From TrEMBL:
Record-given protein name: Sec-independent protein translocase protein TatC
GO molecular function, one term: proton motive force dependent protein transmembrane transporter activity
Protein's organism: Candidatus Segetimicrobium genomatis
Primary location class: membrane
Compartment(s): Cell membrane; Membrane
Short name of one Pfam family: TatC
Highest taxon listed in the record's lineage: Bacteria
Record-annotated membrane-spanning stretches: 29-45, 51-69, 76-99, 111-133, 165-185
Length: 257
């Protein structure tokens, strides 16, 4: 994919006026909105299949609507979420096309790999949550009703719960990108992260507890294990991407001891 960076308009040596910047911004926003609307239209076209797909991890066959507007709101919400997911690479591309004239050729070379990594991590996060976390999480929550309560799941509440949880995992799976960025900017070193492993894993445990909607030990363990694996992977990637970078002192580190 390295050849793709050439298609970005790297023109940092050509000054542009405020009007030209605003015109370029307007053009990119229009292209981004057009792509999102097209993806949302596809979601509206396949709304029933998407809703059934979202219900499958919980083993649900039907949902309840409490108001006249709820069926329409649910289908629209499913279509919008699908539109955001489908159009995410396109939205990133438009943002990068807008800022690319300010980049040097060396910086522009990292645009496509970073974008591809971000999209791939988001997809992996959503798939991981859909296949391995959402099913046991939903079953555990439903089992809390026991024999004394009858659970009636409304369509809007379930769709909100499932989409919010999957979105949180998509963001959480950006951990390698965040770690690589911090090391690349010399805000922290790989050796520092290794020394502070207790604090890192405590943070991972807390985040896993916050992200999981049910707080069940199994779900939190799955999310925490995934985050820990991504963190360790990011350190391995950092050693390969930035060889010797951990030897470079971070600002203030050389005075710390």
């Amino acid at each position: 994919m390295a050849f793709l960076w050439r298609y970005f308009p790297v023109a940092h040596d050509i000054p542009q006026s405020i009007v030209e910047h605003l015109e370029e911004f307007r053009r990119r926003v229009l292209w981004a909105v057009a792509g999102f609307l097209f993806a949302t239209f596809v979601g509206l076209w396949q709304q029933n299949r998407l809703l059934l797909l979202l219900m499958r991890p919980a083993g649900l066959t039907h949902l309840i609507a409490l108001t006249v507007l709820e069926p329409m709101l649910v289908k629209f919400k499913v279509a919008v979420v699908f539109g955001l997911i489908l159009a995410f690479p396109w939205l990133l591309l438009q943002a990068l096309m807008f800022v690319s004239p300010a980049l040097t050729e060396r910086e522009a070379r990292h645009v496509v790999p970073i974008t591809a990594l971000s999209v791939a991590l988001s997809v992996v996060g959503v798939v991981f949550g859909y296949l391995f976390v959402l099913p046991p999480s939903t079953r555990w929550l439903l089992n809390q009703a026991g024999s004394v309560m009858s659970v009636q799941i409304t369509a809007l509440s379930y769709v909100s719960y499932a989409t919010l949880f999957l979105a949180a995992l998509a963001v959480t799976f950006q951990t390698p990108l965040v770690v690589l960025t911090l090391i690349g900017l010399r805000l922290i070193s790989r050796s520092q992260l290794r020394r502070q492993w207790r604090a890192v894993y405590m943070t991972i445990t807390i985040l896993a507890a916050v992200i999981t909607p049910d707080w069940s030990p199994i779900t939190m363990l799955l999310v925490a294990a995934a985050m820990a694996g991504l963190y360790e992977l990011s350190l391995v990637l950092a050693r390969w991407v930035f060889p010797g970078r951990e030897l470079a002192p971070v600002a203030g580190e050389e005075h710390a001891g």
